[in-house]
Structure formats: C-alpha cells, structure tokens
Amino acid sequence: MRRHVPLIAALGLWLVAPIGIGVPAGLAQDEGPTPIPDFALDQTLPTVEVPRGGPRVNETVIDATPLPRDKAPQIDYRDQQANFTIGERITGQQSGATGIILADDDQGFEGTLTLGQVTGEFKEGELLSGSNSGAATADSGLREGVWVLDFAFKPLRTWTIDIPGKGRRTILYLYYRVINRTGKPRMFVPQFFLETDEGKRYPDVVLPQAVEVVRAREHSKPPLLGAPILGAVQITGMIPPSEKEGVDEAVHGVAVWILDRDIARSDSLSIYVRGLSDGLQIADGGPDGSGDEATVKYKTLRIDFATPGDEFDVREREFRLKAPPYEWVYD
C-alpha cells in the first residue's frame, strides 16, 4: 500500500532520509568540513524578473506536468448541463479560477474533474464553464494535489578555481533556475546528488568561492547582471508565487561538486534533484516489501548525461544530455 502525505509533515523525514553512497551534505568530498552558512527555513528567497518564454540559449526546461501516479487537483461537480472534454479549460464564473481537464469521472449529472495548470481558488456552488461546451455546478472547492516547481538548467560544466587551504581544484557545476507557478508560496529544500555509472553518489558541497565564480560567469549580461546565485544550504527557504504578466520571478542556484577520479572516469553521470515537489510515497515494508519498516520515496528529477572524453584531462570531457535527457522518478 502506498500513501501520500503532505510535505510539512514529511519534512523531518526528508532532512534525515538516507541519501545513498557519498559523504554528509555540507562536506567536501575528500577534505575536511567547509563552514556552513547561516540560514533560516522561513526566509524568502530572492527572485529576479526574467522575460517569460521558452528556454534560453543552451538551457533545458523541465516538463512539470504531474505524473499519472501523482495525486492531482480535483473538484466535484453536480447539475451537469453539458459534457466536459479532456483537454478543455474550465473557468469558475464567480472566482475566475481556471484549470485544464486531465480526467473526468462522469457519473451522469455529477462527477469529479482531475485538473492541471490550476490558477486561482475555485468556490463551491459556482458555475464551471468549459472552453468547448462543458458546464456544471461546483459541488466542492478544489482539493489540492501534488505541486511541482518549474525547473530549468544548463549542462554540466567544469571550472578550475583556487580553494583556500586546498589549492587549485577542478569543480563540476549545474546552474539552474526555479520558478513557482503553483499560485502559493512553497518551501524549497533542495537536495542534489551526483551518481556515477558505478552507482557511487555524491551530495553537492558548500563552496562559496565556486558560487561567486559561477555568478560572474553566468550572470554577466542583463537581465541577470549582478543577480544573486545561491549555493548549497543558502537556497533553502520560501519561493513566492510568480504571478506577474509577461515575466517570471525566478530563483537562481548552482549545485557544485569537486571532481575526483571516480567522477572523471565515469562514462555517464546522473543528477538527482529532490525538493521540486511535495510528492512522496510511503510503502509498507522495506525496499523488498518485507518487514515492518516503511520505505519513503520522494518525487525526484533525474537528469542523465553521457560523458565521453579523456579521464586524465577533464578539460576534454564532454557532458551531453542523453535521449531522453531527464525523467521524474520516486527515489
């Protein structure tokens, strides 16, 4: 049996959940601890207004459409006057709320709509009008489903920097942006793991020097000139909803790893990103379904790269997105 539970109730589980092979988050992969900056869970993360539109140069935008196994928003209806159709947009005539119909459990004059891309708050008793022909009266308010933040990233890149006390080291970084189009403020507690083709996992590290190098490299032109980039730990907080016309309010971040021999010789790399959704599943029993211990799995984005090139000269390594480049999984 699988159960969905809210993010806040599961936040404690999340922060102490096993993260696979690697070293504790906040530590360099092969060195001593790096000081972890102060942060507060209730802080509001800084956003930057960027033009709304398709992906920018060399950027991949993730499809945030709910998975079939995700719990999606639903609303009950009664007094149906005309049938709804899958894919049409419905509007609440009193509230102005809108949503796209993903499924319709039609029981004749009553039923339940499963919705995507919901904006606003539907009200019980208002008329629901479809963009094609559907019409009925809302028999409930909206039951919220799993939310998903919009995520875009650029391919993995390497850079060599000076790290105090460690000398010149080559880092691997993933530059990304996050936009909240869910209509409500959302807590963002991201976790990034890099996995080699042998299954070895590394959490991203706290490396302020690398964050500044990436900011100078990626935010050198308007509209991002001078805009902040947040690294590990600093990017924990609330993301306000993006609701302005024609622009997105984006949070920009970077995940950093120090390149070592195991990463350099791997023919493929996968990046796992937790925290983009409150979706999780709790299965009774252990990983094999036996025993009393419950297994918690989180809705996670996996990004897959092929890494052809010279393991002895990382400057010659290429990081090519595989086809398909990413997949939503429960990990």
- Helix content range of the residues, please? under 10%
Task: Just give the CATH class of the largest domain.
Answer: Mainly Beta
Number of domains: 2
The profile of the biggest β sheet is: 7 strands, antiparallel
Give me the secondary-structure category: mainly beta
Order of helices and strands: EHEEEEEEEEEEEEEEHEEHEEEE
User: Percent of residues in beta strands?
Assistant: 35-45%
Distance between the termini: 17 Å
Mean pLDDT: 83
Tell me the CATH architecture of the largest domain: Sandwich
Explained architecture:
The strands form 4 sheets. Strands 1, 14, 15, 18, 19, 20 and 21 form a 7-stranded antiparallel sheet that branches. The protein contains 3 helices and 21 strands. It has 2 domains: 2-66 and 148-330, Sandwich (Immunoglobulin-like), CATH 2.60.40; 74-138, no CATH class. It is mostly beta strands and 331 residues long.
Please give the structural blueprint:
Elements (H helix, E strand, L loop, with lengths): L1 E2 L3 H10 L31 E4 L8 E2 L12 E9 L6 E4 L5 E9 L4 E9 L7 E4 L4 E4 L11 E4 L3 E7 L3 E13 L6 E3 L2 E6 L4 E3 L4 H11 L18 E3 L7 E12 L2 H4 L3 E7 L5 E4 L11 E12 L13 E11 L1
Antiparallel strand pairs: 1-19, 2-17, 3-10, 4-7, 4-9, 5-6, 5-8, 6-7, 8-9, 10-12, 11-12, 12-17, 13-16, 14-15, 14-18, 18-20, 19-20, 20-21
Characteristics of this structure?
2 domains, mainly beta, single chain, seven-stranded antiparallel β-sheet, Immunoglobulin-like, 21 strands
Short description:
With 331 residues, the chain is mainly beta. The protein has three helices and 21 strands. It has two domains: 248 residues, Sandwich (Immunoglobulin-like), CATH 2.60.40.1240; 65 residues, no CATH class.
